[in-house]
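To close the section, here is one more complete example, presented without commentary so you can practise reading it yourself. The ligand is manganese (II) ion.
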Amino acid sequence: MIAAMKNLTIDPERLWDDLMQTAQIGATPKGGICRLTLTDLDRQVRDWFTTRAQALGCTVTVDDMGNMFARRKGTRDDVPPIGIGSHLDTQPTGGKFDGALGVLAALETLRALVEAGYETFAPVEVINWTNEEGSRFAPAMIASGVFAGVFTRDWAAARSDREGESFGGALEAIGYRGEEPCGARKLSAFFEVHIEQGPHLEAEGKDIGVVTGVQAMRWYEVTLTGQDSHAGTTPMPRRHDALLGAARIVAAVDAAARAQNTTVGTVGRLEVKPGSPNVIPGEVFLTVDLRDPDPVVLDRVERDIADAVDLAGAELGLTTSFQRIWAQPPQPFHADCIAAVREAARVSGFTTRDMISGAGHDAAYVARVAPTAMIFVPCLNGISHNEAEFSSKEQCAAGAQVLLQAVLEYDRKLAEKFG
Ligand code: GLV
Ligand code: MN
Ligand code: MN
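Output:
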């Protein structure tokens, strides 16, 4: 058993082939992926995942949020599984690695176990979480949020995209609404491999990030209503220009974040109505994304932005609505899982650095209901949510190898505990 553990390795070429193959589903001309959640492209990649998992002898279960669980039995099948995975949806101009690496590294981990004929004590399940990105249906990580009991199923199913289609309707349409109630499944642990999406590992020349937690995040929706009016005939003092208000708010978000040491603030979506060159915009919808390790700092930044919205409304004669639609507190990971990742990196011969995740991940919600940790690998120039996002074959393989070892490590602990 011990000898087998030492020799178990993932296959870097096979993992890379999977990454490149799935990247064709929704491939963009600039080398990225546009595979928004619950679209037909999402269905295609889910079908691909199902076929591959079944070929490994797994049973694939889908819950009623569309989360997918590909299960390989353990010697003690009554022990809750060790979950490994991430997400297969992408941003509109996403890269090949954000999310996909975590699912495909997990699939490769299972393949290595199957090939070696290695039987784990606990079952191992590869998980594909629905709508991690939150680009089409806000907020991000909806389905892992339901899994963790943070959101209700009905609330999540009723979330609507900007065209008015509901999450539940879109899930039904691609045929991936399963029978199992989301959250009914228990996990012994969860491990997620991901590209860092930031610059630290690359800058310090480290192979692996041992992720100890995820920073706090908040999302807001702002609507400004002024008055549509003729661009050629409406004197400047008589205008109620919603876009001018939005411009002030965009600048205020940037200034409020910069006023703190650690906060980041972004306006990522701006919808201007009616959107005609010779009509003063009467309505603008915009989104705000704020993040910081400390929620008290976020409270301060939120107040600054709320004040800026009020001021823009008062000065420009606009009706304003400023709504916080999502608040996720900072989420520490579990000491046992962090230790398993650290030990896995050590036995694999990789250099490490502890870090907090700047990006959101399903692991942050799963951590509320199961011991959880994450494994980061470097990405080129720290760039992500971009078609140029890149991690090398070796970097991806390192993440998968650490995942495999972490599973073995944690499985051994479970065997000691329950065996
Ligand atoms: C998820 O991609 C996030 O917004 O961090
Ligand atoms: Mn991701
Ligand atoms: Mn992402």
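Once you have examined the tokens, check your reading against these statements. The CA atoms of residues 28 and 34 lie 6 Å apart. The radius of gyration is 23 Å.
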